[in-house]
Amino acid sequence: MIGQDLLGIEDLERSDIERILETAEHMGEIGHREVKKVPTLRGRTLVNLFFEPSTRTRASFEIAAKRLSADVVNFSPSSSSLKKAESILDTARTLDAMDPDAVVVRHAVAGVPKRIADVLEAPVINAGDGAHEHPTQALLDLFTVQREKGRIDGLTVTIVGDIVHSRVARSNVYGFSKMGAEVRLAAPPPMLPAAVECLGVKAYTSLREALEGADVVMALRIQNERLDGSYFPSVREYANTFGLDRAKLRYAKDDAIVMHPGPVNRGVELSHDLTDHRPSVILDQVRNGVAIRMAVLYLFAGRTPEAGSAVRRAGGSR
Amino acid sequence: MNQENPAAPTPTAEPRPPRPVLRSVLDDTGIRRALVRIAHEILERNEDAAGLYLVAIPNGGVPLARQLARNLGQIAGVEPPVGVLDTTLYRDDLTSTGERPRLRRTEMPSAVDGCVVVLVDDVVRTGRTIRAAMDALMDFGRPRAVQVVGLVDRGQRELPIKLDFVGKNLPTGPGESVHLRTPNGEDVGPGTPPDAPLEMVVVPAASRERGGEA
Description:
The structure holds 2 protein chains of 2 kinds.
Chain A: H1 14-30, E1 45-50, H2 56-67, E2 71-75, H3 84-96, E3 102-107, H4 112-119, E4 124-129, H5 135-149, E5 156-160, H6 167-178, E6 182-186, E7 202-204, H7 207-211, E8 216-219, H8 235-242, H9 246-249, E9 257-259, H10 272-276, H11 282-300
Helix pairs in contact in A: 1-5, 1-11, 2-11, 3-4, 5-6, 5-11
Chain B: E1 23-26, H1 28-45, E2 52-56, H2 61-76, E3 82-84, E4 116-124, H3 128-138, E5 145-153, E6 165-169, E7 177-181, E8 199-203
Parallel strand pairs in B: 2-3, 2-4, 4-5, 5-6
Antiparallel strand pairs in B: 1-8, 7-8
Helix pairs in contact in B: 1-2
């Protein structure tokens, strides 16, 4: 059963994920029509509440909402205020008073979308919170793999890079595990979270071993803005040991695909050549992101609560 | 279910209602005959068979449109293209439903501009699905004309929509639903084999299992 909010893949059942992927399959077709727009969310308002700068994800949500005929308001308050928690909730309450039908939230601190969801009437969709989750990115990654490989169950997926800081990695670990894939994480030791085994995944400090027999290789962005220099000696050394190029990719299966959530640090996580050509599917991921976000908005946004459940949230703001 | 008290446990020992008495209104032969007649009627109305484009409304319209296309091919020598158009995203009741309805496949093999589009649905009642289908169709281009086939017309129209070609007029009660089924009793769906025999049945009011949106 699809719930009220989309805060993380951890909260979803496998059947929810399948429902979202199935819906996205149909949404993708709308992008090929002469009129790339359906009236489904006509008269509904989507608020993009981005406390952290974002171009790609915000644009993707905006295009998805517009293809469904929703009105979109972009709201990017500065998050530099000292009394953060308080001001964030005040911002959220102010927005809620304008009766949006869904609010997409991104924040640099884990858990903020949940806090906002607790006070909002409208459904909240997490567009990335700190190093916690980025559910729509994982969904579009699952969707891309399903389209490329025809299935997810039974595949081996290797995620390479700064795992410990990555919400994309965390959401994908939940997503691919729930869908029956084997997930491997490969990184220099400081970038591997402690006790990853309890998530049911295997950790590797050797890229070669992690790639052995992989169907999908996902490189993560080295987020210089989040690293203070103590995680690896130099970018060049990281590129040499964990950067993917065609030579290293030979350890994976012959038909392995390469993914990256973008934007790519060319020559660091991926070689120039791999960034631009098959088997990398980076632009397909972007394209599929619109279809996934259309599916998520269709399934989560603008639903009238069922009669009799007028009070949807204990301790809600009204 | 359990609308008065959502917290009540689901009764496990509830006696199963007796199997609903289904009333068959069109068997496979009847459906085939109707589709041959409708093919002739379509050609009577549209002399240029080359400009025809059949568009099925899933799920029930799909096997009917395919058969109709074959019939038209046999009679006129030109088999028109068959598209499939899901109307779900154009429905007028999306705000009133808690859970979103499942989407179905849309597949329009070629442009509709300048064609005479014949929409094909299994059961027509309120006309709301046809309204949604016409809106959806216009997003694919500008057909020269739009005509509608309903294998069963139940009456009870809520919008000013009139069918051009009807297999059978079937006045039904408010709670009844009409389903296009395969011999094993399942509603026609995406997995129905193309040559499965079909049957149109009326499910009486009390035993309705699912909301037919016909």
